[in-house]
């Protein structure tokens, strides 16, 4: 992820041997490390979203990474965790049921999970095809206009704008 013209965040996520994959990735991309200055190294455990995860036991609540609310596509958990915090604060203040109120957010998390399962079936050539299609200016504009937090409107509009995306429907099976 570029942060500026001279600064970028480079990383990988892996079920195991993350350092090995990271070093391999850097070598494969032929980054000229000698010209780079590593400002900071970060590593951390990333939970995986589990739809059956219980979020409440009496007056004890789970949210954020502890509840596995991490978007399965990007592995980002900051916004889902903050949204849960907002919902939970409202539930405690107004005596509402947290598990029920958090359901719409759960549906979004499930959609991310479904998309993730589709992506996991991709071969390199499919990724190349997707990147080529999404690199078109009309698609980039769409991505600028829509949040990725709620992928459904984005996916639907993308399909209408670029019918070639229908090629990927076969991965739904
Ligand atoms: C390298 C890396 C990069 C990431 N980049 C992004 C990104 O770009 N965008 C994004 O959305 N997400 C990103 N994430 C994920 C994001 O950091 C987490 O989803 C988010 O920080 C979760 O927030 P949280 O408050 O639930 O948990 P945490 O941030 O883990 O906070 C939990 C806190 O509880 C403390 N704690 C633990 N046990 C105890 C205890 N027994 N008593 C008291 N305190 C305790 C911990 O020290 C910690 O401070 C990244 C994660 C990693 C590892």
Furnish the topology, listing elements before pairings.
Elements lengths: L17 H11 L27 E2 L2 E2 L16 H17 L3 H4 L1 H17 L4 H11 L2 H9 L5 H11 L12
Antiparallel strand pairs: 1-2
Flavin-adenine dinucleotide binds next to helix 2.
Q: What is the average per-residue confidence, as pLDDT, rounded to a whole number?
A: 90
What compounds are bound to the protein? Answer: flavin-adenine dinucleotide
Shape: globular
Q: What proportion of the residues form beta strands (DSSP E)?
A: under 5%
Structural class: mainly alpha
What is the total number of structural domains? 3
Major β-sheet strand ordering: 1-2
Using the CA coordinates, give the radius of gyration. 19 Å
Main sheet: strands, sense, barrel: 2 strands, antiparallel
**String of helices and strands:** HEEHHHHHH
Q: How many beta-strand runs?
A: 2
Keywords for this structure?
two-stranded antiparallel sheet; mainly alpha; binds flavin-adenine dinucleotide; 2 strands; 173 residues; globular; 3 domains; 46% helix
Summarize the structure.
The chain is mostly helical and 173 residues long.
Write structural notes for this entry.
With 173 residues, the protein is mostly helical. It has three domains: 1-44, no CATH class; 56-116, no CATH class; 122-172, no CATH class. It is built from seven helices and two strands; from the N terminus they run H-E-E-H-H-H-H-H-H. A two-stranded antiparallel sheet has the order 1-2. The mean pLDDT is 90. The chain binds flavin-adenine dinucleotide (FAD). Residues 42, 44, 46, 64-66, 70, 76-79, 81 line the site of flavin-adenine dinucleotide.
């Amino acid at each position: 992820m570029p942060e500026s013209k001279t600064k970028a965040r480079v990383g990988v996520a892996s079920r195991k041997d993350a350092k090995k994959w990271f070093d391999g990735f850097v070598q494969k991309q032929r980054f000229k490390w000698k010209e780079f200055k590593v400002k900071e190294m970060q590593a951390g455990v990333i939970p995986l979203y589990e739809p059956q995860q219980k979020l409440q036991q009496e007056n004890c609540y789970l949210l954020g990474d502890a509840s596995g609310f991490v978007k399965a596509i990007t592995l980002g958990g900051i916004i889902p965790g903050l949204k849960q915090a907002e919902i939970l604060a409202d539930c405690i203040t107004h005596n509402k049921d947290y598990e029920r109120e958090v359901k719409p957010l759960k549906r979004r998390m499930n959609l991310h999970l479904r998309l993730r399962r589709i992506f996991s079936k991709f071969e390199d050539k499919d990724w190349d095809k997707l990147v080529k299609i999404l690199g078109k200016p009309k698609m980039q504009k769409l991505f600028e206009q829509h949040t990725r937090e709620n992928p459904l409107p984005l996916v639907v509009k993308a399909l209408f704008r670029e019918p070639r995306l229908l090629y990927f429907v076969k991965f739904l099976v």
